[in-house]
Amino acid sequence: MFMLVLVLLQACAKEPDFNYPEGYVGISKVVDFPSIAIKGERLIIQDQGVPYTEPGAEAFLKGQSVTYATNGTVNTSTPGVYELEYSASSPDGFTATDFRTVVIMSTAADVTNNNFAGTYNRELTGLNSTWTKTGRGIYDVENPGGAAAGVGFVVKLVNYTGTKVSIPKQQAFDPSIGGLNTIKSTSEVYRATAVPVTVDWILLAGGYGNGLRTFKKL
């Protein structure tokens, strides 16, 4: 008798209903996240007065192309460092972003004639940062933080007008983390006529803090 009742109960058990409302699995709502990636170069450097052509970006949601917003503008008549941010959103309020930096270089003779290449020592740590000129107003800077962890970390620096310098927002391979690090400088002061020449900046990058860093040219 017991076996018969058990069989009857199992036979009457309700089969699971997998006909969930659209957008749900059980009581859990399915969330779709947008993605976005720029087209073209992340760091664009061009001369003052040259028209800027925007490469744009690609944004997707649930595998379908969607519109995106661009924040920031580029003034090709004024030397400077211009940051552009691209963003895409989902109906649930989730956002994905990407960025590009455009540097407008002065065409004045001072940028052409300046040569800031050399070795710069950070007295606080005793470590050096090496600047190598690779083009008109453009330098590769190794160890921009003057830190032990920054040895081998090479980033682009621009002398975009007069004696103004900047590490424009960019991504570069950082040996200390074994991958890409996003980095930029702020509060830059290059004292070209000081004896010795000195340069200050704050680095905004993963693992670098936000303290002012001072270097002396050797």
Distance between the termini: 98 Å
Tell me the fraction of residues in β-strands, as a range. over 45%
Spatial order of the strands forming the largest sheet = 14-13-12-11-10-18-17-16-15
Which radius of gyration do the C-alpha atoms yield? 27 Å
SS class: mainly beta
Global geometry: globular
Please provide the ordered H/E string of secondary-structure elements.
HEEEEEEEEEHEEEEEEEEE
In total, the number of strands is 18
Helix content: under 10%
Uncertain regions spanning at least 5 consecutive residues: 1-12
Biggest sheet architecture: 9 strands, antiparallel
**Assembly category:** single chain
Using brief descriptors, characterize the structure shown.
Immunoglobulin-like, 2 helices, globular, 2 domains, 18 strands, 49% strand, mainly beta, nine-stranded antiparallel β-sheet, 218 residues, 7% helix
